[in-house]
Batch of 2 targets.
Target 1
Amino acid sequence: MSTQSDANNHWHRRLERNTTLFTVLVTVAILIGGLVELIPLYQVHQRAEDTALVEPYTPLEAVGRDIYVREGCYNCHSQMIRPLHAEVLRYGEWSRSAEYAYDRPFQLGSRRIGPDLAREGGLRTNAWHWEHFWDPRAVVPGSIMPAYKWLYRRNVDVDDARATVRALRRLGTPYTEDHVDNVERYLREQGQAIVDDLATQGIEARWDQEIIAMIAYMQVLGTHLPALLGEDAPAPAPAGEAPGVDAPETAAPPAGQEPATEEAAADQAADEPALPAGEAVADEGADEDGAESDTERAPQDAPPAQDGDTP
Amino acid sequence: MVATSPSSEHPPRPAPHYDDAIVRAFVLATWFWGVVGMLVGLVLALQLAWWPANTELAALSFGRLRPVHTNAVIFAFAGNAIFAAVYHSTQRLCRVRMFNDGLSALHFWGWQLIILVGAVTLMAGMSQGKEYAELIWPIDIAITVIWVVFAINFFGTLAKRKTQHIYVALWFYIASIIVVAVLHIFNNLALPATLARSYPIYAGLTDAMVQWWYGHNAVAFFLTTPFLGLMYYYLPKAAERPVYSYRLSIVHFWALIFIYIWAGPHHLLYSAVPDWAQTLGSVFSIMLLAPSWGGMVNGLLTLRGAWDRVRTDAVLKFYVLGITFYGMATFEGPMLSIRPVNALSHYTDWTIAHVHAGALGWVGMMVFGMMYWMMPRLWGPLHSKKAMDLHFWLATVGIILYCLAIWVAGITQGLQWRALTDQGTLAYPSFVDTVTTLIPFYWVRGVGGLLYFAGICLMGWNLVMTIASASKSRGAEGGAA
């Protein structure tokens, strides 16, 4: 197959005789780009993490996040709002790098078969999520999302959750020894707050159902932004920060969003939806109406709240 | 699978010291996993068009099944095809048998086991949650081990070669083996929490950068360079023409592998990743057009003087269409890396169309061309040339339907997301309205996929019949002897 008889004296012909040198040169060629792009970024991010105003996920939220990863939610949902006018109108404030400081693995996603979830926290009630995961079409007619009924049957495994917290702690997430040792208490307290909130809607649930962890994760998504931007202050208009931004009139979601405690998370979920001010309210308002009317139906539609298939 | 005895009649038979049993095994595995991967793809297409197809079984829900599809097509279908090509052509290019038959067998069975366990664990919900790197850490370690086995076997073969120079196909194989190892290891560095779950040592956007450095270069060094390598071997063989330009192959090889590695951040445009990284990704993606088209031009011009045969020889037809799709996909890729275009295309089906132009158009067509060229040389006369021709047309029409439908779907949805009313509010405030619009396109995509799938099934029939008649005639010979 050595067809290029004309080129026998070419410098490259000599290289072709030495496979070791050839392989080394290939390796060098590909490492340059990788190092230039990855190493500075790694350092930048380490620093961002040190100064992060973001709180780590609570154990229950971390477990919910694991379920999110397990079910492959990232295949249909992104968690990154780009600084584009229509996108900010639809979803709220664009995403900041520090918001992802504790995301392992990152879940930015690459395809929106469903909507972006970066500002999902506080947008809808716990009861809405409870209804939605059981039967998405009950609250969003026309939705093509699968029903996730097994999340209501399966229980959170406490030992598994402890392994999660321990591993994340070792990687630098600021959990304490207490989080590891008493992980069950953390799970139960936050879970029970959600269960109690659901009970006010006539929904009977248990704190250790997987769906409760999932709801906890949904409700924390994107809620650290006010802390990042300086509490209570309206978000600065994003103009100028990134190219392509057409500064929309967006304010930070209402204060009190950041769930400093488990109770706050539950309370806030029952509150008015946290929406960016302005037109976006009209946008998502439609969804919210549906949510409320379906919440009313919740008691008779309520999925089974008992009996898990835990090992 | 272990047919050996060369019969007198048909095309150039391999010299007996080459190990073709391993090539036959990889060819059959390629076909098998191709069917599995594409069948899962069809199920996913159906689930998007008709949600009840998700059933209520966790293992069959879209989110768990989609990684099965992507991993099966990339690592099982394309992977086995790469190994078939490498094991077949490397022996001939080095004029020696593979370095070690034991390593070859270990490579083959290890890889199939990895795929099988991978599919089962993914459906069980065991996932790392990073696209195309979903497999859990114990499987990642197994992949690393088997990849090292492959590398030892390959470089061992190079070391004992009886030729002086290494041919251009081998350059591409070398680059692929090295880079895939580097990417795989660095993207999967993680701390295990349990046997099935681990957490990456990188967090947030660093993890995203590492992932797309990996993800994009998996496209580059798993779905592009190995296939350019096999193009450089099988295309001149089938066309019976030398490669068009040796110098062009040098320039585009080094430029391609150097530039590709920078392009990953184009997956993160407009994200919170630093602007300089995004810009680098964009610029290098656009530069990538040149070496990519260098490969396409070198491939297509190799056919100079043989174009009359393209009309009659379906193997060449597969190659021509494959290389053309390569050219189109590598034009589309840089275009999608331009920020304003990306603003429209990102998160939509346009990306899916782009990927399938590459996977079905470039990878699939090159694999089919290679397999049809190999079949008479590995077993015996091809059972049906008509069926091969029909496969070509089924695949072609299938891809066109698939890509057109999904291109339109992607652009439609992208435009709906950004459409504003006169008052400056969103024209489609309810997200689900931008989803239901796409359902008709999803059906068309499903039909396209079905045609493509029918093609590979037809190939299976042709493959089985070819093997059957080859073993029958061998049996007859054996009886006579």
Target 2
Amino acid sequence: MAAKPKNAAAAQKGPAGGRGSPNRVLIMLTLIALVPFSLPTLLVLFVGMLPTLVAALGERGANRYAWICVGGLNFAGLASWLLTLWFGHHDFSYAFHVITDINMLLSAYGASTVGWVLYLSMPPLVTTFMAATSQRRASVLLAQQRKLVDLWGDDVAAGHVDELDLD
Amino acid sequence: MANEQQKATGAIVGLRDRFSILLGSPLPDLAMPHAQAFVAEEKRDNPRSLFALIVRPGYPARLNILRTLKGVECPGLMTLVDWGVVDWPPANRKVIAVIYERPMGGRVVAVGANEFKRIDENDVLRKVINPLTAALKVLKAQNLTHRAIRPSNMYWATAEKERIVIGDCATVPPAFEQPVIVETVESGMAHPAGRGAGNAADDVYAFGAAVACLLQGRVPLAGAEPDVIIRMKVLQGSYSVLVGDERLPLPIIEILRGALCDDAHERWNNDSIDLWLSGRRLSPLVAKIEKRAARDFNFNNVDYSTARELAIAMARNWEAAVPFILDGRLELWLRRSLDNKEKAASLAATTGGPAASADKRPTNDILVAKVCLILDSGAPIRYKGLSVMPDGIGSFLALTLAEGGDVRLIAEAIMREIPHCWFETRDAYNPDNSTMESVFRAQKVYLDRGSIGFGIERVLYEMNESMPCLSPSTIDDYVLELRDLLPALNATAKKGDQKGWPVDRHVAAFVAARASFDIDRQMLDLASPDASRSSMGMLNLLAVIQWRLGQGALYGLAGWMGGLMHPAINTFHSRQKRKELEKEIPRMVREGSLVELSRLLDSPEDHNLDRQGFEQAKMDWLAAQREIRDIESGKVVYQERALQMAQQTAALISVTISFITVILLVISRLF
């Protein structure tokens, strides 16, 4: 019984996966081809963006926004050293110098911590805001209903209880 | 001089600004049993001596007589000068007053007197027969019947007592005050209020009976019970009962035999009397005596020898008659003893024969009513205790209501189509009977419906043209015609006597019976159980009358109606519209216009707008309710959505900060 939907999903995904595979392979091959030319950058990124990598690998569920939130600020904290690498000495020795720089580590990891704080503190804020908005909407609707009753009498609401129950 | 004194005491009632009725001057000698008489004076310089008869409140006056005989001068009729509705202080209401020329010689026979001075045979022609014949001719020419020809209603026209005139016949229903002795057998069997207008032959009979009494100077069988008089007339014939062995000149015997013939078809008419007056002698009629049976029929331990007697007895012992009819004894007696095969066959057809099953027979009451008519086809409609002529049912109903009697029996008789039985048993076709039968069919429909505007009240007004509206709101104003109705209701409202609705069952029935224009829709609305619809029906009905009759402002009635319009105002859903109407109604009331009030409250455009607005409001309310319900019931979904939105927002902020940082750093490096 359960096999049928799976097959159907596979069938739906099949053609798309088939079309996407060569592109993805092409991108991967391009990136691999570029690796020899950007190894210092990759090294700095790997070390500097470790919190993001951990967040991406550790996150579960349908909505995966934690790694983006952490990653964004993590990258912002690392950006200054990356630009120095790109605009200055793009070589391994400087890359090693950067990854051993305590300031860079503090900046990148501190920024990622701020990312986590942002990610964790936002839901209560948004929930509170949305609750307030809904409550206000309900109050407005009730006021509208009261006005209708004032203008047209109680009969305006008569007979709707059943209708609502049927819905 | 007397007038001056009356005026001083204020006891004068005016009629049409032309006549004065002096309340302090009653005339007992001219009074009728049911109508008081008072001295009347004409305000013009006129030597005529007048008197007024006051119709007793509740009694239906004979309007056709009043309208037709007004101003008619005839040697045999007391001249009816005028009539009209007047304020009557003793009754504290309005009544009908009839003004007559005063007969100067007084009454011929005092009311209730059984013996009096006889009129000589030599004078009777000049003093009695000639003027009375002239009166009968005038009445016949106008297609009227007098139905009050009796010695005690005759007056000497002059102080010299040279000529007799017949007195009033309009203040009571036809033949209401007639003693049985001067009435035909058929009419005598009916209740006095239900004798009906009858026909000219009834007047000729009463004329003959009155002449017979005047010639003998006594009322035969005075003091005898009506039943005894009728029985004697049936067994001996009217002439024998009224004249007996009295020695009279042959010509007088001839006219009396002709006038007192019990068979209405053979009875003399005006032409016969004219021929007699001109000296032509007709062959004297031989009295037809009711056919006697070879063997008497024993009913209720009494033996009866004629079908007519038996019919009277059965009508008096309603329940006891049923077994005699159903077991075939009566049919057998008719066939064998009375030798009347026609009546026997009719009886068999009515009962279905002794072998007929119970469900095929008419109910016992209808059966007895039919059998009574088969036995005596000339008799009135008899049903349980009821005994009335078909054309007397209206006046009988009116009198019964006026005296607070029970009208259920009359209603039941009409509902069970007893009048139809009477029409079925007629010997010959008469177009008047067909008209009357269709009238009774209509009355049955009115009784069947029973709602306001119908029922027994409708029957009352349909069958009594002269019946004033008996509603408590109008009864004091004696409303005879539709045009008087709204002013009467208006006056009631002005007096502050308004109780309930102005249109009650009597007013509605009166309007329905008298209106010559279409009021079906208004009557239908009025009868609605929905208060708002019925109140609008009432307003529309009164507005139609005001509009059709072109009646002016009715402030009191408009105010009365305005106060009753809350159900109609409440038909609008819009509270704002209701407030507007409540403000507008007092303005309409001040204009006294029911028509404008009706337009204001019954505007189809306003109602449509209100209905559309209300429907829209209902939909808006429902939409709001659904949204509120969604907000309240959808908290879980909304929290999930909030979490997702928060994460997205955090990611967006983070990416934005990152983007701005990179841009700024790049810019700082480049410049």
